[in-house]
Amino acid sequence: MKKVLIIVVFLIAGQQMSAQFNILNAKDPSEIGKKTEKQKVMDYSKPLPYPYTDDRDILWGKQVWERIDLDERFNLPLYYPTDTLAAMPNVRSLFDALYSGIKEGKITKVYADSYFTEKLDLKDLKERMIAVDTTDAGMDQFNDEGKVDEQFINVYHVNSETIEEYHTRGMWYFDTRYGELKYRLLGIAPVAFDPKGMAAGMTPDLVEVFWVFYPDARETLHNFYAFNKRNTVRPIDYDHLLNARRFNGIIYKEDNVYGDREIKDYIHDNALRQLLESQKIKEKIRDYEEDMWNY
Question: What's the pLDDT score for residue 152?
Fold first, then answer.
C-alpha cells in the first residue's frame, strides 16, 4: 500500500507541475502557457490507468445514464470558457476539448448512440452539427438573379456556446477484491439544440451531438483543463474532474428489463416525480453498499 500511495503522490505532483502556465517566468507574452524545457523534462504525467477488473470480482453492478445540466452553477467548469481567444492555453470547455481530439484524430471511437453501435467519422459529425437555411428574401433573389447573397443565408452550427447539457453512461459496481462500491465512466455526449430544427423554423429539440467512448478520450482530456475558481494556477484536467465525479448529474435512465426505458417513459409530464424517481435509483445504489456490511 505504501508503494501505491507513493506512485499516486508522484502522479498528482506531475499533474500539478504540468498545470503551471509559466506566467511569472515568461520573458514574452507568447511564452505564457508554454512549458519551459525544464518543465518538459520533468513532465511525466499521464492519466492514471484503470486497474484490471476481473468479471469474477464484480459481485453486483448497475448501469445508469445521467444528465449534467450546464445551467447549474456546480457544472459551469464544463461549460466555460466559450471564447477560446480570451482563455489561457489548454483551458477549454469540455466540448472544445472533445472536438479538438476528434479533429486531430486522437479520439477515434465516436458514435451516434450510447450503446456504441453506429460509428461516426468527422464528415458525419459536420453534417450533424451544421445546418444552412435561406431566408425568403434569399429565395426571391435566387428566383430573380440566380444567386443568393450571404446576408440572406443563415448558418446554424453547434459549438461550445450552444451546448446545453451532457449525457453520460457509467456503471456502478461492487468490487469484491477491494470490498467497495466503484464507478466507471463509459461514455459521454454533448447535447445541444438540433441545428436542422432551427434551420427549418421549428422549435428545436435537444439532441445528442455524438457519443464518445470515454476510455478512448482520457489521453486527450488529460491535456485540457477546466477553470479552478479556488486556485487559478492549479486548473484541473478533465480526466481527473470526470473520474472524480466533480459534477452534479441526474439519472434519467437505468438498465432494466423494459429495454432500458427512460424515467420519462413511465412517469409522464411530472418533473417532480421524475426527479424523485432519479433520487430513488441513487439511494438504491448507495444502500446496496451499506447493506453489504450489515449483518
Answer: 72
